[in-house]
């Protein structure tokens, strides 16, 4: 029977991203996906800066066309695409949709899921992932030291078993793995079922020159939502309250366009608008990622697939450290501790915003809103793999307000080193990195950190963004950054015994 270190169930965006991140870390893995290719149904098209940062770290960001819009998605209410808009609704009320370019070396990408997935599949294969398409998981048993998994090839029906050290369930919102494990879900639950009609209409692209990309269609007897993939494909969505013939679907598209334009319907599909968060993200050797862990509707914050890709990013280095013997299995417990609160944060922020508040009704208690940059770059994680992220801290803040707070993403600053200009984010990814301007910290012997970067020697920060300000450490301090770019610990003081012991504690927390 074949043994696989990590078996990934589901080869859509999140499963493929998990495989890519693991293969880049040198961890052998197999992806089983029951379909042979990507689903043609309309789904994700907005990928955020953080997602692109992860892809940049593993060297594939330049394969993904990165758009450079100066704003996030804009939504307007119109009678039809060709009419003037009557109102514009902000994703975060009171906050302009402008992007803060200074916060990331990457911009987001507007690319349809069925275009991104082939890029990921190719990248996975390049890095040595074993992709098995047309193969489904039909059962599994979890044992003390491994998971036994039954697979079936859909062509021919051949059934066989493999064993795996760990299983990543990236099998979507209806996850059979989650259900078999008996993990329930909580949240606002089912809200609506929608019908999507995907159609090609190059003539409609001209209307994008006006700025907005999302159109709430309001007519007396017709309410729908129209948006674009940005590649002359458009999606119309409305309540799936009854069966509609092809003629009716075409008529709905015509009404939404509002002007005579040639279009061709490509496909139609249904999807459920819902909010459900798994009550636990892991059980023994099995980890839930992506929609199997959190089912959230599409938002202008990109809280769907992007959240799942971030799960995979969080889990990959932990699996690497455990499988290579650098950390004990306790590190894997921090996956649920860190990612489930993020799932809840995104659930609450989705349904507290006007785009969705109307659908949840009075029983829902909205949370105060965090701004766009706080949600994208400034979420906080707390677990044994972070020291200094206390319960008194908010779940999100702007990154410049955090200034290197442990539990948040290490800040992006353009720095120079070796005659090149790089992002500080380019320094992270492979292993723990200790960043310090202090000769005291830089020359300590016996630290279990693979990489010490001396600020002022190896890299130089610009005068208007000094290291000690960006990372909040003072001239004598140091910052320890995890392989996923999260600050694990920092010291404002010099390398005295207390500070060294505290840094060792976080490294040990990651190896206990
Ligand atoms: C209309 C729409 C628009 C959206 N827009 C955005 C957006 O702009 N940005 C964003 O971030 N998100 C968006 N989303 C959400 C996004 O599409 C999902 O979050 C994303 O697809 C989740 O990826 P996943 O890999 O977790 O699960 P899925 O995409 O559901 O993939 C699960 C995979 O597992 C496979 N599978 C299931 N069971 C088995 C089995 N037993 N054996 C083998 N394979 C199995 C399935 O075939 C499937 O390929 C949108 C969703 C919709 C519906």
Characterize the structure shown:
The chain contains 13 helices and 24 strands. It is α+β, with helices and mostly antiparallel strands. The strands form 5 sheets. Strands 1, 2, 7, 8, 9, 10, 16 and 17 form an 8-stranded mixed sheet that branches. An 8-stranded mixed sheet has the order 5-4-12-13-14-11-15-18, with helices on both faces. α1 runs parallel beside α3, α1 packs parallel to α6 and α6 runs antiparallel to α7. The protein is globular, with a radius of gyration of 24 Å. The model has no long low-confidence stretch (mean pLDDT 93). The structure holds flavin-adenine dinucleotide. Flavin-adenine dinucleotide (FAD) binds next to α1, β2, β8 and α6.
Cα distance, first to last residue?
A: 31 Å
The CATH homologous superfamily of the largest domain is named: FAD/NAD(P)-binding domain
Q: What's the tally of helices? A: 13
Helix percent reads 25-40%
Unreliable runs, pLDDT <50, ≥5 residues?
none
Beta-strand percent range:
25-35%
> What is the CATH architecture descriptor of the largest domain?
3-Layer(bba) Sandwich
Q: According to CATH, what is the topology of the largest domain?
A: FAD/NAD(P)-binding domain
Assigned CATH class of the largest domain: Alpha Beta
Largest sheet: 8 strands, mixed
Bound molecules: flavin-adenine dinucleotide
User: What's the shape?
Assistant: globular
Structural class: alpha+beta
Radius of gyration: 24 Å
What's the average pLDDT? 93
User: What count of domains describes the coordinates?
Assistant: 3
Count of DSSP strands? 24
């Amino acid at each position: 029977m074949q043994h696989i270190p990590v078996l990934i169930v589901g080869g859509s965006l999140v499963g493929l991203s998990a495989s890519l991140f693991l293969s880049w870390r040198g961890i052998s893995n197999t992806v089983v996906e029951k379909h042979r290719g990507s689903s043609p149904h309309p789904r994700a098209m907005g990928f955020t800066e953080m997602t692109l940062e992860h892809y940049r770290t593993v060297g594939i960001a330049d394969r993904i066309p990165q758009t450079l819009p100066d704003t996030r998605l804009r939504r307007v209410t119109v009678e039809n695409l060709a009419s003037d808009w009557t109102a514009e609704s902000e994703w975060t009320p009171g906050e302009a949709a402008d992007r803060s370019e200074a916060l990331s070396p990457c911009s987001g990408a507007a690319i349809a899921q069925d275009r991104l997935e082939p890029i990921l599949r190719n990248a996975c294969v390049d890095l040595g992932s074993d992709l098995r398409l047309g193969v489904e998981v039909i059962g599994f048993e979890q044992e003390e030291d491994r998971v036994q998994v039954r697979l079936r090839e859909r062509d021919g029906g051949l059934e066989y078993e493999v064993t795996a050290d760990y299983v990543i369930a990236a099998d979507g919102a209806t996850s059979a793995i989650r259900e078999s494990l008996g993990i329930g879900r909580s949240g606002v639950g089912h809200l609506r079922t929608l019908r999507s009609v995907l159609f090609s209409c190059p003539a409609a692209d001209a209307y994008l020159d006006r700025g907005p990309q999302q159109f709430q269609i309001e007519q007396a007897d017709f309410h729908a939502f129209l948006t674009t993939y940005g590649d002359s494909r458009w999606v119309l969505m409305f309540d799936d309250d009854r069966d509609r013939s092809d003629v009716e679907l075409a008529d709905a598209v015509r009404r939404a366009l509002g002007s005579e334009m040639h279009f061709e319907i490509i496909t139609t599909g249904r999807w459920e608008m819902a909010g459900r968060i798994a009550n636990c993200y892991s059980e023994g050797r099995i980890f839930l990622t992506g929609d199997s862990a959190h089912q959230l509707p599409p938002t202008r914050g990109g809280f769907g697939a992007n959240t799942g890709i971030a799960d995979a990013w969080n889990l990959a280095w932990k699996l690497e450290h455990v499988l290579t013997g650098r950390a004990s299995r306790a590190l894997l417990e921090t996956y649920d501790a860190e990612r489930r609160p993020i799932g809840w944060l995104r659930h609450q922020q989705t349904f507290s915003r006007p785009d969705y508040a109307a659908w949840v009704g009075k029983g829902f208690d909205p949370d105060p809103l965090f701004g766009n940059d706080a949600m994208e770059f400034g979420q906080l994680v707390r677990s044994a793999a972070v020291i200094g992220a206390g319960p008194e801290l908010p779940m999100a803040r702007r990154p410049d307000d955090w200034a290197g707070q442990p539990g948040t993403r290490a800040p992006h600053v353009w720095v120079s080193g070796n005659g090149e200009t790089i992002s500080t984010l380019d320094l992270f990814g492979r292993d723990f990195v200790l960043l310090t301007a202090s000769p005291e910290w830089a020359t300590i012997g016996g630290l279990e950190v693979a990489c010490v970067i001396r600020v002022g020697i190896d890299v130089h920060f610009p005068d208007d963004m000094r290291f000690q300000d960006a990372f909040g450490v003072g001239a004598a301090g140091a910052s320890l950054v995890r392989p996923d770019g999260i600050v694990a610990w920092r010291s404002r003081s010099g390398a005295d015994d207390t500070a060294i012991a505290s840094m060792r504690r976080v490294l040990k927390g990651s190896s206990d």
